[in-house]
Specification:
mainly alpha; 4 strands; 61% helix; two-stranded antiparallel ribbon; extended
């Protein structure tokens, strides 16, 4: 009884009911597991006594609840069997993304079909939805009793395949979105229920200026087109390759040349004052290449240097407090958001207005996003 009054611990995941509860006591019991937190989207109520039949009576004693309110409250309680019934649709939704691919086990074709960022995010979301329901299903005796063994095996095999695909495309396209919450859940699910090697991190992020380690990373990627994608996304997110215009070998050769051009060009025109500041060196290279593209009739060396220095100052002021770098600032959307606003103001005031140039916001975002991605690597 003491735990039912004033007890509010979000991590409580399961409540076992083994005695009669009525009225407000029943409502309080139900509410103990409905808090969410990281890694917990819902809680479980194991009703040994059958007291949930009393729920409508418990709701009716509160005159302030109208019928709509009672319906909303009821909807927060969902039988596990109802959630498990969603599994075939979640499975179908995941496969629907790849219905145009004839060979259903051609992971390279899948990876190429996920070249566009919004499509990859849709894939990540659908995989997470499928794995979440499958995890719930595999934790119940009812699922094994009512589902054919070959169907369960297919669900597990598909989870394993799509999880490997997700790991591969995150590496290939240098996705930086924080999926740690879902990765841990899927990894645990696979390790416990699927006969496969554990999900492993294929590679840590490697700085492209470290030529030896970067080449080792590229060598570890399987497939010519995949190697090219890895180089392209590491070198600059804004380098665009339209699938089908080049053969895989031509694409790889072109991306290798782009990488060398970026490195050598930046080094050859690098102001001495940035020589020992790797982050600012990269900001300068990003700004210089974009300013040359945007303002071909102007001398942009000084402009790029000013941008690199101001960006370096703004970024460090944002993420370094009392001499220490904020822990995990890369995943804090409020910190990164404030940083990007200040960087945009800098470009508006000291490039667009100062030089009276046409500087579209989309192009500002290219520079800002590229520099923030660099900062996430260097400032830790």
């Amino acid at each position: 009884d003491k735990l039912l009054t004033g007890f509010d611990e979000p991590k409580v995941a399961v409540m076992y009911l083994d005695r009669n509860l009525k009225g407000h006591t029943l409502l309080q019991a139900v509410a103990r597991v409905n808090r969410t937190c990281e890694g917990k989207d819902y809680g479980y109520i194991i009703d040994y006594y059958g007291v949930l039949r009393e729920l409508d009576d418990a709701l009716s004693i509160y005159s302030e609840y109208d019928e709509d309110d009672r319906d909303v409250f009821r909807d927060t309680l969902v039988p596990v069997s109802d959630k498990i019934a969603e599994l075939p649709q979640r499975h179908s939704d995941l496969w629907e993304l790849f219905k145009m691919i004839p060979n259903k086990r051609d992971l390279e074709a899948y990876a190429q079909s996920l070249r566009m960022e919004d499509r990859r995010h849709e894939f990540y979301d659908r995989l997470t939805a499928f794995s979440s329901v499958l995890q719930l299903a595999l934790s119940t005796e009812e699922f094994f009793k009512n589902t054919e063994e070959k169907t369960i095996r297919r669900y597990k095999e598909d989870l394993n395949m799509f999880s490997k695909l997700r790991t591969a495309v995150q590496l290939r396209y240098s996705d930086t979105i924080d999926y740690k919450k879902y990765e841990a859940r899927i990894e645990k699910l696979i390790n416990h229920h699927v006969e496969s090697d554990a999900v492993k991190v294929i590679t840590n992020l490697v700085n492209i200026f470290d030529k030896d380690n970067f080449q080792k990373e590229v060598d570890n990627v399987v497939g010519t087109a995949a190697k090219a994608d890895t180089i392209a996304t590491r070198t600059a997110k804004y380098i665009i390759y339209e699938q089908g215009r080049l053969t895989d070998n031509e694409y790889l050769e072109k991306m290798m040349q782009y990488k060398e051009d970026v490195l050598n060009h930046t080094d050859s025109e690098l102001p001495p004052e940035l020589e020992h500041n790797n982050a600012a060196k990269a900001y300068f290279g990003i700004a210089l290449e974009n300013y040359k593209r945007l303002f071909p009739d102007m001398s942009v060396q000084e402009m790029a240097l000013a941008t690199a220095k101001s960006f370096d100052e703004i970024i460090r002021q944002t993420v370094i407090v009392d001499g220490s770098v904020l822990v995990d600032w890369q995943s804090k959307t409020d910190t990164v958001g404030k940083m990007k606003i200040r960087l945009e103001d800098e470009l508006i005031d000291n490039v667009k207005r100062k030089y009276s140039v046409n500087f579209p916001f989309d192009d500002m975002d290219i520079i800002i996003d590229g520099c923030v991605d660099v900062a996430k690597i260097w400032i830790r």
